[in-house]
Amino acid sequence: MSRPTLLVFLLLVLIITSQFEWRQQLVSDAETTHTQSQKQLQISLREESVKEKIILSQEKKLQTLNELVQSLKEQLQQCRSNNETLNSTLSSMTGKIIELEQLQILED
Predict the structure, then answer these.
(1) Residue 27: CA atoms inside 13 Å, Cβ hemisphere, count?
(2) Which among 26, 51, 60, 102 would be 20 to 30 A from 12, CA to CA?
(3) In this structure, is residue 29 part of a structural domain?
(4) Residue 102, domain extent
(5) C-alpha to C-alpha distances, 24 to 2, 8, 17, 18, 31, nearest whole angstrom
(6) 95 φ, ψ to 5°?
(7) What's the structural domain count of the chain?
(8) Domain membership flag for residue 1
């Protein structure tokens, strides 16, 4: 074989092998991209799951707080009612004491 023919042959072999390498790289890149997108999807799903759990937990805490607020309102109302009763009783007793003092003053 002549030298130019040998060079052309080697050039063809080089071109063909580089074509195979490029195709393998493209396939490998495509597989890598697919794998990465699947991992990203899994990560997104996990994040959504965690967010939902956080929201549910916060809703439960809010419900508990609302129940506590309601209980405190009821206790406050009961205290006010008790205070009104005590004030009424105290006022009545004060009136009776004044009457008794006035009677004692008159009797003396």
Answers:
(1) 6
(2) 26
(3) no
(4) 34-107
(5) 33, 24, 11, 10, 10
(6) -60, -40
(7) 1
(8) no
